[in-house]
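Appendix B, Record 12. Input sequence as logged:
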Amino acid sequence: MFRRFGAYYRHYIDDLFFIWYGTPEDLLQFTNDLNSTLSPVRLTLNFDQTSIHYLDVTVYKDVMNNKLQTRIYRKLTDMNTLLHYKSSHPRHLLHSLPRSQLLRVARITSDTEERQKTCSI
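Logged structural output:
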């Protein structure tokens, strides 16, 4: 069934991401078929037709140009805290954190306006 309706598949450890072209009913049937095997692994399913969170990324469908876009996903519990500059962390770490975070935003966020908005938070 995946060969017929699945278009793209990636995983990281125990998190799966795939794009499905079938109906929601076909997706539920596919998940039930996988869960009915003798394997002790059980799948839980989160799906949406407009956006989905995967690890620290939100993948969403841009309705203006009918493309998939990505942006940073922050959990509701994220407090956007920063390391204090006078903390006991090594200096090279404190100096590299802003650059690392900006690179992360640049790599994950596909839309230029969204990237600018994220960097200004």
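Strands lie at 6-12, 15-20, 51-54, 57-62, 67-72.
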